[in-house]
Amino acid sequence: VCIHRVRSCSSIRFIKSKYVCVFDKSALKFSHQQRLFRTSAVSCGQIVQFKLSDIGEGITEVTVKEWYIKEGDSVSQFDSICEVQSDKASVTITSRYDGIIRKLHYSLDEIAYVGKPLVDIEIDTSKGVAPEEDVVETPPMSHEEHTHQEIKGHKTLATPAVRRLAMENNIKLSEIVGTGKDNRILKEDILNYLAKQTGAILPPSPKAEIIPPLPKSETVPAAPKDKARKIPVPVSRPIVFSGKDKTEPVTGFHKAMVKTMSAALKIPHFGYCDEIDLTQLVQLREELKPVAQLRGVKLSFMPFFIKAASLGLLQYPILNASLDESCQNVTYKASHNIGVAMDTEQGLIVPNVKNVQVCSIFEIASELNRLQSLGSAGQLGTNDLTGGTFTLSNIGTIGGTYTKPVILPPEVAIGALGKIQVLPRFNEKGEVFKAQIMNVSWSADHRIVDGATMARFSNLWKSYLENPASMLLDLK
Amino acid sequence: MVLQSSLKNCLQLSCILRTLKAGFRSTTSGGLIIQSVSNDVYQNLAVEDWIHDHMNLENRQVLFLWRNSPAVVIGRHQNPWQECNLRLLRQKNIKLARRRSGGGTVYHDLGNINLTFFTTRKKYERMENLKLVVKALKALRPQLDVHVTDRYDILLDRQYKISGTAAKLGRTTAYHHCTLLCNADKFVLSSVLKSPYKGLKSNATPSVPASVKNLFEEDPSLTCEMLLDAIVEEYATQHQIDHHITLINPADETVLPGINNKTKELQTWEWVYGKTPKFSISTGFNMVYKDSVLDVKVDMDVKHGRIEVCNIDLPEQWLPPALCSELVKNLTGSKFCPNETTTLATTLLRVCPQDDELHSRWNLLCENMIMLM
């Protein structure tokens, strides 16, 4: 009865391959009970119950642990449907059909049974006539059925994916010589057939035991065959861009940034920039680096910048202050807790060095090392991240010269340091020399800081760094 | 240029192919033995993924040998908070990885051997593999009392677990991997596999704790190399192939194209933590502030590693209610992660009244919240 039905629909090509899916060589070999059900085309689809196939080792039940699809999603053959677990084994169940998921028979953590329906898939039989059909629903199929199909009366061995490819290109499978096992028709055979027709060069398929994934770049280990033989004729195909917009909620670090920056917007910023000649400092640091190294500390330029800033803040304490919400009171902070902006994998964090006013440059360097290693490991504590009164951002390590930094509330000033460049400058004698130049960009809260104060602070900071020996006079 | 590099690829691939073909004697007993040169748990797990996804195991089976520097490996559907001491892991710089196979949590270090048996899905047979291992051990040291239980564990002296098993089945291929304790650090093992997190409720696969013992303790003359050798010998015999181990570098894109992407994926937060099945926490802690002890209750629902619902029960007016609700609102939707919570908490402080008392209370509360993660 079933055979007759299939023959009658063989003239309708586009549904042919779908119906062939339910036929299986093993069904003819073994005498399992078969369930027949009629389907009548009410809508365009035909619902097929996809059953949980055999897991092996005599297992009859599994727990559904994760669904990769939901009702309404469309799936292709071999797409992952869900993950089930049984006795320390995690199994990925893939779809046997192309279609739309209509029903999930289990929810998460429910027990699913081998041989019972897992999902209902609506197979697309639209585009015309969808006659009443008897569809033979075979019992849990063996693993070989994916690669081994047979139409009654016409022994063409090919997977449904290969059949689809042939169909899309209007190729009769009977015209192709299969090169796979048992003369099975492989995807390569179809592609080669097409190549002969269009004269185009197709990616050589490695008939190897290792099947590489789709090549993304030149790292494909394909056997170089016949590359020089044919002249490539470009096959024109409309360029399809399949990128899609992706929307995700703002959480975590980004949420924190949104909060901080929205508050910073309320602060009227003004900027002040300058260039610093670090020639002498560069030399000094070279001399001191090995000394610090012996004590187990990595010495960068930051400790110098931080200490010089603290010395400057002693003269201009308004820059180390905080304005309250109502703008009624200014609090001059006693401690110089200087924050250092750090770029981590997750985003921007600003830990601070506490009480710089009583720290030596070496102590600052040591503390910076600690903060840096904690920062990159994602293990900074709340204490390290709160209580800052003034911030320096060394964006120059990444690049840039002048920037417009944003003040981090509740502070009133911030400095951003560009990269150190070697540039020609004139000295007192009017000669050109090689100078190590760094740019600094300050931003301050114009409600309580005026331009003159910022300029004088910057000049003082600059003089300490351009002539490091002068720092010795004022170091506490 | 292009031709040279592709020739090189071709040569390296053909080496593997030749080895594969050399190992191929008959349709049922072909085999290949490979060993990783890396001790990075993510790279090695990526090799398993790669072989599972790309190798055709129709006519040959593969045995993969690997060892890792200290790492805790949880099963596909497990909850890391339930299984191990994440705080201790972070402190000691021990890696946390989630594998794709099922089963429970294990601790790896260089004193532990990992074996992965790759077959087609049809030929998936865990008992056989474990019996092979036991046979190898007995051939090496006949006096060893080792046997396989029906839970797929290998026990020493009928009581100590020396090997745990897990498996992954795909569409056409499957693998079964197991550990083997030779000389692992039992002290670290027991301390990292003990979870300090209370009040967790979840449907994640729980681990079954077991007493473990190193083979080295039973026989101090044993080393990892000897065990590996014995197992390779047995595998080679049973599969009728040469006792030959092919070394494999998990960072080599030319031999394993696409492997670095797999390694990266295994290290993402979304995979390691985000794949945790939905769970809830219902717990509390005591905070000592100045002269009083405060009782705080916390309830949270965590899905995909992110806080879905959050409820903090504080003594009234200890913190301004507006600030509390700000904290809860911000925690909702963010990762159940100490780093992220710290950032959020400290950022929120920037935009609230600058009061030292308030700040120290806030920091105390947040530090305690972070301890839950």
Automatic annotation (TrEMBL), chain A:
Belongs to the 2-oxoacid dehydrogenase family. InterPro entries: 2-oxoA_DH_lipoyl-BS, 2-oxoacid_DH_actylTfrase, 2-oxoacid_DH_E2_comp, Biotin_lipoyl, CAT-like_dom_sf, E3-bd_dom_sf, PSBD, Single_hybrid_motif. This is Dihydrolipoamide acetyltransferase component of pyruvate dehydrogenase complex. Residues 47-122 form the Lipoyl-binding domain. GO terms for molecular function: acetyltransferase activity; dihydrolipoamide branched chain acyltransferase activity; lipoic acid binding. It holds the Pfam family Biotin_lipoyl. Its cofactor is (R)-lipoate. It comes from Fregata magnificens. Residues 206-228 are annotated as: Disordered. GO terms for cellular component: cytosol; mitochondrial matrix. PANTHER family: DIHYDROLIPOAMIDE ACETYLTRANSFERASE COMPONENT OF PYRUVATE DEHYDROGENASE COMPLEX, LIPOAMIDE ACYLTRANSFERASE COMPONENT OF BRANCHED-CHAIN ALPHA-KETO ACID DEHYDROGENASE COMPLEX, MITOCHONDRIAL. It is found in: Mitochondrion matrix. Keywords: Acetylation, Acyltransferase, Lipoyl, Mitochondrion, Phosphoprotein, Transferase, Transit peptide. The keyword Ligase does not apply.
From TrEMBL, chain B:
GO terms for cellular component: mitochondrion. One of its GO terms (biological process) is protein lipoylation. GO terms for molecular function: lipoyltransferase activity. It catalyses: N(6)-[(R)-lipoyl]-L-lysyl-[glycine-cleavage complex H protein] + L-lysyl-[lipoyl-carrier protein] = L-lysyl-[glycine-cleavage complex H protein] + N(6)-[(R)-lipoyl]-L-lysyl-[lipoyl-carrier protein]; (R)-lipoyl-5'-AMP + L-lysyl-[lipoyl-carrier protein] = N(6)-[(R)-lipoyl]-L-lysyl-[lipoyl-carrier protein] + AMP + 2 H(+). Pathway: Protein modification; protein lipoylation via exogenous pathway; protein N(6)-(lipoyl)lysine from lipoate: step 2/2. Its main location: mitochondrion. Lipoyl amidotransferase that catalyzes the transfer of lipoyl moieties from lipoyl-protein H of the glycine cleavage system (lipoyl-GCSH) to E2 subunits of the pyruvate dehydrogenase complex (PDCE2). Unable to catalyze the transfer of octanoyl from octanoyl-GCSH to PDCE2. In vitro, it is also able to catalyze the transfer of the lipoyl group from lipoyl-AMP to the specific lysine residue of lipoyl domains of lipoate-dependent enzymes but this reaction may not be physiologically relevant. This is Lipoyl amidotransferase LIPT1, mitochondrial. It comes from Fregata magnificens. The gene is Lipt1.
